[in-house]
Design a protein that fits this description.
Blueprint: H1 14-37, H2 41-51, E1 62-63, E2 66-67, H3 86-100, E3 107-112, E4 115-121, H4 122-125, H5 135-150, E5 155-163, H6 175-194, E6 204-210, H7 221-227, E7 229-236, H8 244-250
Parallel strand pairs: 5-6
Antiparallel strand pairs: 1-2, 3-4, 4-7, 5-7
Helix pairs in contact: 3-5
Length: 257
């Protein structure tokens, strides 16, 4: 008895399904490549950090010619589509260092159009009535010098400003010692930066204001302590030169009653 012929299956078109799926996947892949070709450095960094949230930095990530090393750790940072240059990175890196080391009560950072403003409280670098840099102050300055070095080509000038405070509410300080202490402290910080050879000495300026540029009143111990400080004002290349009061106003520092 002759055997029955096997009936051919009706799935002759199954290869078309496989082919269609493959074409669809390829299309999705090319769309993904195109979208990545126009991604900003900030969005790319966010993507990488999502895969490795514990990473301290992503300095090996390069998008085109732009290298981005840190995300904005504080409010007021760059907008998602805004290009972050070396000068912006200076602010981000310093902010991250202050936050990681819980130095917010000792160091304040502000920034505005074309400048970064750093305030060091009187006990960060010096003991009372002294202009000798403390060892712990040198450690902090070392970190700041590293950030300055990485942004050196975008920096126009670094001003180091020394300030004292009126010792009692109603009695001005003795002028000679007041001025010398403020100037000597500013000069000591400037010399420490200069000796690191991180930036051209011509870009470094120091000034001593004594008690005459307060950012608070002289009424209470806390107010007077706030006035005792060393400030570093870093301006960006081609930025508009402003008065110190204008920088204070933009940095929201003045709080004189």
């Amino acid at each position: 008895m002759a055997g029955k012929k096997k009936k051919r299956g009706s799935g002759g078109a199954n290869w078309m399904d496989t082919y269609g799926d493959m074409v669809t996947l390829l299309l999705c892949f090319f769309v993904l490549l195109y979208s990545m070709s126009t991604v900003s450095s900030e969005k790319w960094e966010i993507l990488v950090r999502s895969f490795n949230p514990d990473a301290a930095e992503v300095s090996q990530i390069v998008v085109g010619e732009q290298q981005n090393t840190l995300s904005d750790p504080v409010s007021g940072g760059a907008k998602p589509d805004e290009t972050v240059d070396d000068f912006d990175e200076l602010y981000y890196q310093l902010s991250e260092y202050v936050t990681e080391n819980n130095l917010q009560s000792q160091i304040e950072l502000s920034r505005g159009d074309g400048f970064t403003f750093i305030t060091f409280r009187d006990n960060v670098f010096f003991d009372g009535d002294s202009y000798v840099l403390k060892d712990e102050g040198k450690v902090i300055l070392d970190e700041f010098c590293q950030a300055i070095y990485e942004a050196r080509d975008s920096i126009q000038e670094i001003q180091v400003l020394g300030h004292t405070s009126q010792a009692t509410p109603d009695t001005p300080n003795e002028p000679v010692s007041d001025r010398f202490l403020a100037s000597d402290r500013a000069t000591e910080v400037l010399l420490y930066i200069q000796q690191k050879n991180i930036i051209e000495p011509s870009k470094l300026v120091s000034s001593g204001f004594g008690q005459h540029r307060p950012i608070s009143s002289f009424d209470t111990r806390e107010d007077r302590a706030r006035n005792r400080r060393v400030e570093i004002l870093i301006t960006k290349n081609d930025s508009v030169v402003k008065t110190l009061e204008q920088y204070y106003e933009e940095a929201n520092m003045i709080d004189i009653n």
